[in-house]
Write a structure and sequence with these properties.
This protein has a seven-stranded mixed beta sheet. The protein is of the alpha+beta class. The protein is globular. The chain starts with a helix and ends in an 8-residue tail after the last helix. The protein has two domains: 137 residues, Fructose-1,6-Bisphosphatase, Chain A, domain 1, CATH 3.30.540.10; 109 residues, D-Maltodextrin-Binding Protein, domain 2. The protein has eight helices and 14 strands. α1 runs antiparallel to α2 and α6 runs parallel beside α7.
Length: 262
Amino acid sequence: MEVEVASRLARSAGQLILAQREDGDLAVGTKARDEVVTSADRAADRLVHEGLAVEFPDDAVYSEETPDSGTRLAHRRVWIVDPLDGTSTYVTGGDEFCVSIGLAVDGRPTVGAVFNPCRDELVAGAIGQGVTLNGAPAGVSDVDHLPRARLSTSRRDVTRGLVPELGAASVTVVASMAYKLARVSAGLDDATLSAVPRKEWGTCAGVALVLAAGGMATLLDGTEIRYNRSELRQAMGMVAAGPALHAELLVALAARPTPFRE
């Protein structure tokens, strides 16, 4: 039931944010740390919150666009939501944004739904149930060697000099972390990584999808990624891929001569 509800809400929220941009009825402002926020972020947030409250009234919701009271920390089941991951590219007319809805149980990501409305791609799944791309079974790729790997990363990680040192076969720049993770889980890319710590909102659903699809998603030191924590960001960056490629990436990252820079 959780996958179906998350998928339905992700699609509805995605259609809403796309329609708001196409209609030109979009208020754009900034919030803490000068991050961009729009009326579409907040409208999608309300839609998802209301839908989850109806279907799972006893669960907590932790969302980027809703003030955090901290009461979620006492809950075993917490929905972790980014109603519009990739707001900057959304505002400038790009197509790399998405809606991300994840469920963490006892701190572990278990369910995910990530929808990119521009590309009409819905990746959804749960631990023990597998992953689908627009309803068709999907999974992580079996590429096991970096020189053959399709790697997705952010524009900032490219400027940090991270990619040339790893020697991936190809590199795709994608704005949304949630969407990058979803692409790996569906086999559209072989791996993704972030050199810097990420917030829970943009990774919970995607990490759940990678794990459900048979892949690995860890922090850069290989440790497990946990959720519903009091800290805003994870302790460090992260990497996700199929099992063999993930192991090779961890070795390559540990051997880098240049430290990561914020």
